[in-house]
Amino acid sequence: MSHTMFVNLPVQDVERSKEFFTKLGFQLFGMGDEMASVVINERTQVMLLAEPVFAGYARNAVAKPADSTQVIMVIAADDREGVDALFEKAVSAGAEPVGDARESFGRYQRAFTDLDGHHWEALCLVQPA
């Protein structure tokens, strides 16, 4: 059985986050003042929830992404060029780079934090030379 995945993220400003992810080339769905869904693919969506809305669902205090990392979200690309293109779009839309490009264990990846400080990576599988 195949399942759909929804990842919920607290954001400070839903409109600003919607603009950021639109600049990365993602479609949005179910938008409102306090939430919007970023469609990663037909089976995966990232729900952007205003912090008070997110807090209403959370059992514990909402972590501040600038202070700690609870999760690293990774988006797969087809090749190195796709990884670099997503990374460059993110940085030009206001993301902060995290470290250098890495190639190890058959993967090429680049990391950035979004406007709220959530850690993202673009990754592709690479064939050994």
Automatic annotation (TrEMBL):
Gene3D superfamilies recorded: 2,3-Dihydroxybiphenyl 1,2-Dioxygenase, domain 1 (3.10.180.10)
InterPro entries (UniProt xref): Glyas_Bleomycin-R_OHBP_Dase (IPR029068), Glyas_Fos-R_dOase_dom (IPR004360), VOC_core (IPR037523)
SUPFAM superfamilies, A to Z: Glyoxalase/Bleomycin resistance protein/Dihydroxybiphenyl dioxygenase
Signal peptide start and end residues: none
Residue ranges of domain VOC in the record: 1-125
Pfam short name (any one): Glyoxalase
PROSITE patterns xref list: VOC
Protein name per its UniProtKB record: VOC domain-containing protein
Natural source organism: Spongiactinospora gelatinilytica
